[in-house]
């Protein structure tokens, strides 16, 4: 029985204040997710698997907090006072978030003090068990209290708005807050600000929400007095950040045995420079070593092996045109410029912040290479740049999105050499440069005899199963576009590939070309000959050709990313390879059969037990959370693959989802208030079928968008958010309808239960879709799986409706 609440007066002002409290909690939650994502990506070298792990942890703890409050919402009189105490804890999770964010930064320092296998040396990338533990622990305090606060805020709002639409309205208000938090963080990221100002904004939003709660309860003076200490804490924290730069202090702790020179935040990540050796520096990207200056011998192998293969080197009367995608600041530019005054280089680097730091901190001859008149530097995504250059060459009039550059202005048909100086394909973002589609785009900007140079992870001695499959996939993918491939074995292995050029693996031939060009490459001269020993090359080719039949690495099915993840995990845990090996055999038929089996079991349970039938609504919301996250991840992945670096558009696409979610929740709340039980069931079933239809149509739509010309870039940037908003709209409609149909006597209890189910579903979607389904099944397979799940939920709701009558 619900206890009376004599201390609440349901006035219009109180309702508005309660709504403001829900929005404030949503803002704080949205900011908190971005902060932890940012910091965890920093210590995981940008590995997107961290996104799924962190979101899974956030949703899991949020569900625990919401479920705990929901169960207590209607027990006794004292519970309401407990709920009030939860509501007025708003600043505490954000103070915890501040400690969590900076605690994440200090995790590498702590792990470096622990002996293996639990410890990780400073500068090394953490393994999967470490990332799982850190993600769960970092998200726990803020996420759990955020979920509890939403449930408690829902209880307050339902008391002040005693109507069947209150739950849906509260859900929509929380979504509006998430949207506002996403917009704020997107603006801060575009300005290059770090996590601390985001934490301050989250704390301010929580502060406003907490004051609104106490004011709604009729005690404004108490509210101001209660929140004064929290306001002082936030003020002191803001001033200390502005005055001393906490982020840089944490860097000094991380690089305790080195001398940090600077650290900056950019829209693409965190960049730092430390003193290295006598007069050298080391560049760090997202907390992980990126490259030193002076450079390592590796860059000489990557540059000179393909450059010496190009036919243009032997024609001194014509320009030698080169494209360098990444790696220029790491010494690649200097090595290319050694080929003489006729060399013309386009250098494409994603992060302009790296170029600024390189101009300031590179040592020796590498710094001057950036300002050489033969070099044209482009600060943009390399995949998008090549796509635009391909369009410009095809049109032959320079209107493909970029003006003609010096290297192509003189009537040339393309580049003689294209060198990919990007890292190995251990992330989805980097894997885009190793797919069939990108290789075809690269071939389109090259001369018929042009040579492509790239590297892939390998070993000097033995290729284990996971590394063998990764290398075999990448080599087969390169051969699909460039039939001629020369290998330079080693760790990493360098490939020179061409469509028609005659390539060589003869060390003496390459030595003679180095001498003729008077190239100063001592490390390449010293080591390439051993690596090109004929027996060594034959053995590597034989091993790779003997790999089992494997699919090509494509944009729609990034299997290279999957095997890259498997190789990364196996480096830290050999037993994990068995899991990935089994997962690689997963097919769409297996998943559809699993969905049908679960549906049959649920239907059988519902026919036997009315109580089992009553669980259909939470099950539908849980499944909808899974589907929505799977489709949102698919859209983000598709945008990244087809049109460039996703994090510039991340706030827009995810914000569009929240817009659709908020609008759908408001529409669903209105429909729930006006509909009887029969119509509400029908709307729920219709929404599930609409979501299944969206999932079925999405692959066709994405395929059509991938074929649009770059002149339609503005249209593309509009269509992706629209598609995401449509997914959010259908998802948002279902929550208030499910709350309306719930048989629970207390709206707050029902809402909290459904909210927890929604978060658990999103947790599973974040953990499964991006890390498993997309790499193995591809875009189409993931969408079809989502359609099967949503269709199965529609059938389950039909059965539950018949049982509920």
Structural write-up:
- Helix 1 packs antiparallel against helix 2 and helix 5 (128-160) crosses helix 30 (747-804).
- The longest helix has 58 residues, at 747-804.
- The strands form two sheets. The protein has a seven-stranded mixed beta sheet, with helices on both faces. Strands 1-2-3-4 form a four-stranded antiparallel beta sheet, with helices on both faces.
- It is built from 30 helices and eleven strands.
- It is an alpha/beta fold and 805 residues long.
- The two termini are 25 Å apart.
- Helices cover 67% and strands 9% of the residues.
- The chain is elongated, with a radius of gyration of 28 Å.
- Residues 1-6, 239-246 and 397-411 have low confidence and may be disordered.
Structure at a glance:
By secondary structure, this protein is an alpha/beta fold. It has 30 helices and 11 strands. It has a 7-stranded mixed sheet, with helices on both faces. Strands 1-2-3-4 form a 4-stranded antiparallel sheet, with helices on both faces.
């Amino acid at each position: 029985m619900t206890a009376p609440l004599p201390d609440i007066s349901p006035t219009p002002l109180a309702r508005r204040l309660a709504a403001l409290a829900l929005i404030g909690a949503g803002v704080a939650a949205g900011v908190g997710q971005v902060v932890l994502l940012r910091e965890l990506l920093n210590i995981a070298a940008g590995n997107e698997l961290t996104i799924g792990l962190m979101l899974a942890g956030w949703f899991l703890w949020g569900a625990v907090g919401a479920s705990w409050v929901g169960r207590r919402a209607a027990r006794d009189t004292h519970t309401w006072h407990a709920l009030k105490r939860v509501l007025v804890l708003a600043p505490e999770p954000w103070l915890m978030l501040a400690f969590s964010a900076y605690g994440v930064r200090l995790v590498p320092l702590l792990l470096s003090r622990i002996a293996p296998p639990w410890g990780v040396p400073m500068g090394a990338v953490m393994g999967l068990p470490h990332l799982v533990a850190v993600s769960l622990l970092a998200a726990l305090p803020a996420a759990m209290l955020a979920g509890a606060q939403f449930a408690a805020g829902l209880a307050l709002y339902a008391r002040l708005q005693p109507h069947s639409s209150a739950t849906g309205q509260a859900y929509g208000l929380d979504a509006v807050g998430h949207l506002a938090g996403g917009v704020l963080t997107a603006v801060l990221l575009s300005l290059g600000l770090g996590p601390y100002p985001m934490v301050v904004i989250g704390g301010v939003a929580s502060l406003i929400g907490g004051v609104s709660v106490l004011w709604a309860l009729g005690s404004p003076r108490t509210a101001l007095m209660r929140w004064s200490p929290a306001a002082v804490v936030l003020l002191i924290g803001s001033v200390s950040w502005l005055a001393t730069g906490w982020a840089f202090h944490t860097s000094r702790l991380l690089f305790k045995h080195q001398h940090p020179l600077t650290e900056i935040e950019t829209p693409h990540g965190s960049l730092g420079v430390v003193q290295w050796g006598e007069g050298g520096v080391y560049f760090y990207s997202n907390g992980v070593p990126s490259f030193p200056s002076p450079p390592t011998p590796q860059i000489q192998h990557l540059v000179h092996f393909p450059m010496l293969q190009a036919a243009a080197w032997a024609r001194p009367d014509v320009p030698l045109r080169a494209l360098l995608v990444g790696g220029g600041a790491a010494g690649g530019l200097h090595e290319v410029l050694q080929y003489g005054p006729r060399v013309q280089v386009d250098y494409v680097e994603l992060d302009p912040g790296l170029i600024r730091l390189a101009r300031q901190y590179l040592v020796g001859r590498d710094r001057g290479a950036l300002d050489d008149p033969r070099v044209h530097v482009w600060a943009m995504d390399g995949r998008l740049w090549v796509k635009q250059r391909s369009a410009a060459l095809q049109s032959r009039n320079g209107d493909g999105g970029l003006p003609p550059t010096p290297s192509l202005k003189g009537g040339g048909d393309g580049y003689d050499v294209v060198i990919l100086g990007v890292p190995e394909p251990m992330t989805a973002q980097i894997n885009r440069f190793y797919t069939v589609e990108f290789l075809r785009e690269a071939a389109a900007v090259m001369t018929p005899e042009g040579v492509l140079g790239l590297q892939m992870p390998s070993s000097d001695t033995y290729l284990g199963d996971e590394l063998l499959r990764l290398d075999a996939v990448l080599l087969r993918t390169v051969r699909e576009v460039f039939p001629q491939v020369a290998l330079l074995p080693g760790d990493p292995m360098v490939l020179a590939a061409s469509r028609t050029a005659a390539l060589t693996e003869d060390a003496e031939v390459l030595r003679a070309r180095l001498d003729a060009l008077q190239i100063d490459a001592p490390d390449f001269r010293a080591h390439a000959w051993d690596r090109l020993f004929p027996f060594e090359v034959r053995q590597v080719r034989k091993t790779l050709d003997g790999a089992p039949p494997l699919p090509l690495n494509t944009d729609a099915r990034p299997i290279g990313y999957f095997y890259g993840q498997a190789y990364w995990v196996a480096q830290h845990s050999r037993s994990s390879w068995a899991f990935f090996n089994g997962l690689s055999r997963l097919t769409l038929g297996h998943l559809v059969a699993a969905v049908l089996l679960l549906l049959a079991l649920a239907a059988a349970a519902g026919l036997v037990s009315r109580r089992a039938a009553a669980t259909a609504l939470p099950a539908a919301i849980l499944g909808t959370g899974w589907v929505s996250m799977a489709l949102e991840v698919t859209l983000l992945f598709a945008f990244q693959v087809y049109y460039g670096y996703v994090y510039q558009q991340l706030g827009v696409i995810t914000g569009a989802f929240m817009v659709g979610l908020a609008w759908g929740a408001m529409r669903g709340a209105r429909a729930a208030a006006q509909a009887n039980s029969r119509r509400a069931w029908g709307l729920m079933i219709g929404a599930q079928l609409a979501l299944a239809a969206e999932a079925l149509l999405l692959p066709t739509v994405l395929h059509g968008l991938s074929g649009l010309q770059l002149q339609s870039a503005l249209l593309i940037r509009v269509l992706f958010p629209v598609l995401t908003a449509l997914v959010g709209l259908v998802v948002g409609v279902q929550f208030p309808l499910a709350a309306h149909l719930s048989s629970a006597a207390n709206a707050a209890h029902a809402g909290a239960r459904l909210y927890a189910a929604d978060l658990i579903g999103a947790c599973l979607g974040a953990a499964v879709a991006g890390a498993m389904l997309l790499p193995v099944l591809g875009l189409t397979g993931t969408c079809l799986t989502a359609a099967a799940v949503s269709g199965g939920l529609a059938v389950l709701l039909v059965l539950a409706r018949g049982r509920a009558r």
